Amino acid sequence: MRTIGNIFWLGTKELRSFLRDFVLLGLVIYAFSLAIIAQAGSYSQEVHNAPVAIVDEDHSELSRRIAHAFLPPYFRPPQYITERDIVPLMNMRRYTFVIDIPPNFERDVLGGRDPALQVNVDATVMVQAGLGSGYAQQIIMTEIQDFLSHREGTPLSPVNLNVGIVFNPNVTTAWFTTVMGIINNITMLAIILAGAAIVREREHGTMDHLLVMPVTPFEIAMSKVWANGLVITVAVGISLYFVVRGMLGIPIAGSIPLFMVGVVIYLFFACAIGIFIGTVARSMPQLGLLYMLIYMPMNMLSGSNTPLESMPPWLATVMQASPSTHFVSFAQSILYRGAGIDVVWPQFLLVAAIGGLFFVLAIWRFRSSMAQAAA
Fold first, then answer.
1. CB 55, CB 79: distance < 8 Å
2. Which of 223, 267, 302, 330 could form a disulfide with 229 if both were Cys (CB 3.0 to 4.6 A apart)?
3. First and final CA of the chain: distance in angstroms?
4. Is 121 helix (H, G, I), strand (E, B) or coil?
5. Cα-based torsion angle of the residue sequence 6, 9, 11, 13 in order, rounded to the nearest 10 degrees
């Protein structure tokens, strides 16, 4: 009971110190609110409201059908321009796509003369240019095939391809980036807050006070884990309910309480890393450099940005030893696919086991650094 009491009161001291550190407090608020909203408003991974112009030199039914087929949200309503305006307007970045329909296009299509239709693309808008070109080609070819099938009685393809997109039917990037932003920020803030708590004790001289108190290194470390873990857990819950669901209107398929249980388990590992590098770093700048060396590779290789299947087999095998890989996996299963405890419990156990080993290592390192400080 004395150990539990020491951990509790040391944790409340840590919470008071955190609330007085306006920089870290602002970082937590920003990471789970404005940063998530900014990620949701970014359409860098998809075509959205791409400006389109049409040069209609044919003025036929087919040319009008092609022009009317470019619809929001991928494209803006097409604007009609003349041929001589193509280069000046694209130089001014007024349009990303300009479709030039030549004279007698419909007549040549009906006559089977294989006419050419020109699509001019501004490739400085790289993502929209690459994806939008494919969309434009598909739209134009679909309209031509439908036009021919109605005019000439051309039989349709004997095979109908039905594509079923599950979990994100409209392939909306914001549904992915917002939730993954929260998942990545959990690791980032757990490492920073726990590491900063150790460095702050050393810089403020309060570590010497702790050394003369009847508390053990385990109690000190556990107090920092539960205090900083509580801050992150509360911030994650508020962000999911009020920012993601409320303000952004993004659906969460699975159980948020089940995900929060996984977050609490994972925080033991993430805070343990923060404590470990906090015992190595001698100042906040050193902590920041060590954080980048650890967090960036762990984040990029965890499967949050690219699937493990896209990595070399040996690297994917190595990353199985990182709890961040299993955390991303069960987080996506719960929040995206609505998985229950019957699906994710093996990953919960792996995160708890590997995280426990890292926590023991962090406690050993913390005890060693305190013994050196006492000597």
1. no
2. 267
3. 29
4. strand
5. -130
pLDDT of residue 72: 86
Contact 297, 318 (CB under 8 A): no
Q: How far is CA 107 from CA 110, 113, 146, in A?
A: 5, 9, 15
Q: 97-101 and 118-121 as β-strands: parallel, antiparallel, unpaired?
A: antiparallel
pLDDT per position as a tens digit, 281-313: 888 889 989 999 999 888 888 888 778 888 888
Contacts by 312-319 with C-beta closer than 8 Å and gap 24+? none
What is the distance between the alpha carbons of residues 255 and 204, in angstroms, rounded to a whole number?
42
Q: Say if CB 240 and CB 256 are below 8 A apart.
A: yes
The backbone torsions φ and ψ at residue 59, rounded to the nearest 5 degrees and listed phi first, read 55, 50
Using CA atoms, how far apart are residues 262 and 274, in angstroms rounded to an integer?
19
Average pLDDT over the chain reads 87
Contacts of 113 (CB under 8 A, 6+ apart): none
Short-list 368, 64, 63, 24, CA closest to 227 = 24
Nearest to 50, CA basis, from 85, 103, 5, 95: 95
Please state the pTM of the whole predicted model.
0.77
The answer, yes or no, to whether residue 190 has pLDDT greater than 90, is yes
Whether 49 has a pLDDT exceeding 90, the answer reads no
Listing DSSP states for 24-78 in one string gives HHHHHHHHTTHHHHHHHT--TTS--SB-EEEEESS-SHHHHHHHHT--TTTBPPP
**Domains with residue ranges and CATH for the chain:** 2-42+172-374 (no CATH), 52-151 (3.40.1710.10)
The answer to whether residue 30 scores a pLDDT higher than 80 is yes
**What percent of the residues of the chain are helix, what percent strand, and what percent coil, each to the nearest 5?**
70, 5, 25
